[in-house]
Amino acid sequence: QVQLVESGGGLVQAGGSLRLSCAASGRTFSSSAMGWFRQAPGKERDFVASISWNGRNTYLSDSVKGRFTISRDNAKNTVYLQMNSLKPEDTAVYYCAASTLISNSGRGSRMEYNYWGQGTQVTVSS
Fold it and tell me: Which contiguous run of DSSP H or E holds residue 39?
């Protein structure tokens, strides 16, 4: 069993930065791929970024490439999403996800993840 708790969301002006954290419990964290997804009102939950179990491989959606960075600290059971140059269209609830199904960075599919956090709101004002 893996439990995930996100933090770090909030309100920021366009062009600003936020860092999201996801603290995980459970013995499988260090061998699990981790991902971030987001869901805006009335829209599907979309892939944002993922990272392999050892942090060596990452995969980002085209919409955030060059602005967001995903990283992890296995000693702290935590994965991070550094978000820079934020835009109003980045406004969404951001969800952390863990996978005991894959250990690499995956292909950005929700089906690859079997544990989800409750989400943290990110609002970017123009």
Answer: strand 33-39
